[in-house]
Every structure is written in structure tokens, then in C-alpha cells.
Write a sequence for this structure.
């Protein structure tokens, strides 16, 4: 199968419109009794309400010939509870479990489960040596962090072997690297504000153009305009043989997730239809984005 | 942490770069640092940031240049941990404070889950010659627990914490605001830092290199597992004792 469009959902009724929009595979979390075991608040705002909803979703997804991944990607968690959840989700027919904790991967190494294990971007892989490191933990897919250039991704794709690579596209661009960032774990995030809302109060040093630099930095660190795109990178991602394009945003409104999936599907169709120059494609992508998603804005470029 | 050596070192010296592979000293500079510190009788700790494949090649060159020196080496990603284990068997490895932020809690989680699995994972770390974990006040605050379950001792960096890390360097991008997010770096960050305030968090924060720093004075009392204090000021920009 070619490059898949990997889309989040939080209710079984969202599946049909997302499939219609072009989703090839899905991911979700499940509200967990007690503490969360995935990297989002433990609520239906981000997750399926329970295992019954997961079972129902898996049935619908498989009936449509798609696959589903379930997140168990909290960076730190109750390992016993996580292993029990993994066994239960596997029994229901989950195709893939997204893990982050290295010691959970270690404890799961001998687990008799049918589903594939994948690595969350919250345990970031920046280089091929790290890819090799995680291969030993039976990781079959790696979601790369948002903070790699296309050249970095190209280098990893050359050494990936049987391990599938997934990269981000559309939505959810944060300037900081999850896993190495302490800000997103802090309690104020529940107030609905981005955790990177910094304001520059003083510039130290003697560099030229300090004020402009400060304005630029602030616009990256205090802006709500940052959202994420990456459509211009599709030709290269396709050429590199990237396996999966992840659209982030379990909490995003359904109509936005539909728009993102459609945008990726339609522009992939343009590329697959035949020879087109990079310049021609970039123009089409910009126009499409402005008309159907949001005005093209370089702040939102993933790559 | 230094990318220049002190004239008369009075204790262990950390040499290298913790956050940005673009600022990694040359292989020759690392080897010179080891040689000069040995001559001065000061123990050396070499520091490496999270690395892309391009950075791994630079690190590989450093390891070759070290020619089997037995020094401490701080790593901040699992790739560098593997590379150093395989290609520099005399190095003692330290989990740097970016990598330890999550890995330490993972180990504490495993300790709470199963003594057998914990022992097995400790053996895994031991095979990789991990001798120490690095922390700062910010990462200890995030852990919300003691370090008793750590199988090796720990260091505490003070007075600047690493609050956040990015490879989309905002300072590099500021030279050409419309360029792609991974614009060519001209090391505009040297000699430059930005005081920033946060909408919800108290404290003094700074943008420095590809980091957000927080100022945290050394705590009066530290965890029993901490047996080393690392005094770190951003090397080419003195932010002062209390910003």
C-alpha cells in the first residue's frame, strides 16, 4: 500500500465522514479508569469513552477495509495498567498500539499480542542509530517528531528497512519538541491556552536588528496562528516512500479534520495523476489550501 | 558547560554542546579539551546534544578522534547512546538532562511495577555503561517524586534549567523570516538571548539557542541520589546572578 492518510477520531460516528474524506487509517485514545495512559487529558474531549466504543469503532473500521491504532503513549504511566489495556485492546482486534515509554516497551517485549507496536513522537527519534535502537523493541512503525527537515527525513528513510515511518502533516505544529519539552506537561494547559505563549520582554546582546528578531521570535512563541501545513512537501514525502501521513488533533472539530484529510487526499491525487513540476504543484497546493483550509502562511510550514 | 576551556580548572569541566548540533565543537576541539584537562589534572565530561543523522556523523568523528580515551560522555538521545556504546567502549555514559526528563520517570514507573523487569532494565542500562543521570530543578519538579529508584547517582545543574527544546530554532529563522523553518544557520544565537515572560507561569525565562531556559537558584536541600552539582551559565552570554 502507498502512503496512508492517518486520521484521529474520538467517536464512532466520526468514522464514516472521515473515510469519505480520504482517511486510510485511524488512531484514537480511550478514556482509562483512573489515570490517563495516553498523552492527552483523560476525557471524551480527546478520547473514546470506553472499550465498548473502541470495539464498535474497530468493527466499523475493519468493515471499511481500514486499520486502527490506539494510543498508550503517555510518557510516564502505570505500567501494569498499560499492559492490561494493551492485552484488552489487542483482544478486540486493534491493529496497532502507539507506545512512548521505553520501560513499557521493555516490559511489553515478550507480550503475546497480535497487533503491531509503534513508537509515538513523544519519544523522539532524530537519527538512524535511534531507529536501530527501537527496532530491538519490536517497534514496527515510528512517528517522527515534528522537528526534522526533509533532508533529515530522507536520511532516516534510507535506513528504515521494514520499519514504517510516519510524519506529520496539517494541524498541531508546536515549535517545541514533545518528549524534550517540560512545558506541555504543566497544569495550565487545561486552561485552553497554548503552552508556548511567551512574550519577549528584553533583548540581551549586541546583535544587529534585535527588535526585528524579537518580533519574529514572539510571533513563533506567542501566536495562535501557528497551525501546521506541509502540503508543499508532499511530492518529496511521496518520493521518499514515507508510509504514513499523520494528521494530529483528536480534539479538533470534525469539520476541520475532514478538511485536512480531503486536502491531503486531493493533492496526493494531483501528484499521482501524472508528471507535474514542483513549481506547478506548489501553486496548486497554495491555491487549494487558501480556498479550502486556511490562507497559506509560512509560519505554518512543517518542513 | 564550555565550548572554551577555563585557564585553571578547579574541578570537573563539562565541554561540548548540550542542545544544538549546529554548535557542536569540532572533533579536534573535543580531543584537545580531553588532552588539556588531563594535563591540568581536571576530570572531563564531554557533552553531546540530540543529533540528526548529520550530527551523528560529526559525533562519530569526535569518537574516532578521542582514540579510546576513558572519560565521561553526556548523551541526549538514544542514537548517541548506542553509537557511543558501540564505537567508544571506554566512555562512561551519562543520560543528559533532555533525555533524562522522561527516561528517569520511565525507570521509576518500572520499579513500581516489577522488581524482575526493573532488574532486567538496569542490566540493559549497565550494558550501555550508563553511570549517571543529569537533572535540573525544572525536571525534578516534573518528576514529582524522589530518585531512590534510579540505579545510578545523579547530577543537578544550576542555576539555569532547560524548560523547553526545539529543532525549529527561532533565532536562526529570525535572519530570514520567510525562509523555510530549517533555514541555514549562521549562528545568529551567539551573544544573543531574549528575556521572555509566560502568560501563566511565574519565574524568569529566556530564549537562548534552541532552548527556553528558566532561572532556578540552587535548592537548599537536594535528593540523596544527587552527588554532584554542575554550575552552568550559558557560556557566551552572562545573564547575571539573578536576572
Amino acid at each position: 500500500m502507498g502512503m496512508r492518510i492517518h486520521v484521529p477520531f474520538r467517536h464512532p460516528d466520526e468514522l464514516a465522514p472521515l473515510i469519505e474524506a480520504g482517511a486510510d487509517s485511524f488512531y484514537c485514545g480511550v478514556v482509562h479508569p483512573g489515570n490517563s495512559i495516553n498523552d492527552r487529558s483523560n476525557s471524551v474531549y480527546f478520547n473514546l469513552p470506553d472499550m465498548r466504543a473502541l470495539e464498535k469503532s474497530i468493527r466499523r473500521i475493519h468493515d471499511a477495509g481500514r486499520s486502527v491504532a490506539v494510543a498508550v503513549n503517555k510518557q510516564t504511566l502505570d505500567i501494569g495498567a498499560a499492559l492490561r489495556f494493551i492485552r484488552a485492546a489487542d483482544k478486540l482486534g486493534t491493529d496497532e498500539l502507539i507506545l512512548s515509554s521505553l520501560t513499557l516497551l521493555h516490559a511489553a517485549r515478550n507480550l503475546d499480542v497480535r497487533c503491531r507496536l509503534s513508537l509515538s513522537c513523544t519519544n523522539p527519534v532524530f537519527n538512524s542509530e535511534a531507529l536501530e535502537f527501537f527496532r530491538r523493541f519490536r517497534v514496527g512503525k515510528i512517528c517522527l517528531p515534528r522537528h526534522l527537515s526533509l533532508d533529515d527525513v530522507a536520511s532516516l528513510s534510507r535506513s528504515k528497512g521494514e520499519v514504517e515511518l510516519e510524519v506529520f502533516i496539517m494541524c498541531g505544529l508546536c515549535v517545541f519538541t514533545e518528549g524534550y519539552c517540560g512545558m506541555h506537561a504543566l497544569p495550565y494547559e487545561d486552561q485552553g491556552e497554548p503552552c508556548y505563549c511567551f512574550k519577549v520582554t528584553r533583548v540581551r546582546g549586541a546583535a544587529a536588528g534585535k527588535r526585528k528578531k524579537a518580533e519574529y521570535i514572539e510571533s513563533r512563541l506567542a501566536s495562535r496562528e501557528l497551525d501546521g501545513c506541509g502540503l508543499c512537501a508532499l511530492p518529496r514525502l511521496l518520493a521518499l516512500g514515507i508510509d504514513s501521513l499523520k494528521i494530529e488533533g483528536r480534539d479538533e472539530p470534525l469539520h476541520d479534520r475532514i478538511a485536512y484529510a480531503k486536502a491531503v487526499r486531493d493533492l496526493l491525487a494531483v501528484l499521482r495523476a501524472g508528471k507535474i513540476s514542483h513549481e506547478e504543484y506548489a501553486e496548486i497546493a497554495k491555491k487549494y489550501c487558501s480556498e479550502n483550509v486556511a490562507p497559506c502562511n509560512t509560519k505554518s510550514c512543517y518542513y | 558547560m564550555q565550548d572554551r576551556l577555563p585557564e585553571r580548572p578547579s574541578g570537573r569541566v563539562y565541554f561540548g554542546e548540550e542542545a544544538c548540533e549546529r554548535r557542536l565543537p569540532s572533533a579536534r576541539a573535543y580531543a584537545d579539551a580531553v588532552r588539556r584537562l588531563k594535563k591540568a589534572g581536571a576530570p572531563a565530561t564531554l557533552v553531546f546534544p540530540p543529533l540528526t543523522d548529520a550530527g551523528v556523523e560529526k559525533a562519530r568523528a569526535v569518537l574516532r578522534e578521542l582514540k579510546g580515551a576513558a572519560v565521561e560522555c553526556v548523551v541526549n538521545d538514544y542514537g548517541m547512546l548506542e553509537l557511543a556504546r558501540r564505537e567508544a567502549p571506554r566512555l562512561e555514559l551519562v543520560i543528559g538532562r533532555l533525555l533524562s526528563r522522561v527516561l528517569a520517570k520511565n525507570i521509576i514507573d518500572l520499579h513500581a511495577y516489577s522488581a524482575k523487569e526493573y532488574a532486567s532494565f538496569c542490566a540493559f542500562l549497565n550494558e550501555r555503561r550508563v553511570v549517571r543521570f543529569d537533572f535540573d530543578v525544572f525536571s525534578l519538579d516534573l518528576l514529582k517524586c524522589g530518585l531512590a529508584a534510579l540505579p545510578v547517582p545523579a547530577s543537578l545543574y544550576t542555576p539555569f534549567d532547560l524548560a523547553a527544546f526545539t529543532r525549529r530554532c527561532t533565532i536562526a529563522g529570525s535572519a530570514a523570516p520567510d525562509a523555510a523553518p530549517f533555514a541555514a544557520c549562521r549562528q545568529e544565537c551567539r551573544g544573543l538571548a531574549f528575556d521572555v515572560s509566560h502568560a501563566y507561569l511565574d519565574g524568569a525565562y529566556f530564549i537562548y539557542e534552541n532552548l527556553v531556559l528558566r532561572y532556578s537558584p540552587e535548592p537548599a536541600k537536594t535528593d540523596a541520589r544527587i552527588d554532584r552539582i554542575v554550575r552552568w551559565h550559558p557560556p557566551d552570554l552572562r545573564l547575571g546572578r539573578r536576572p
The first strand of chain A starts at residue 4 and ends at 8.
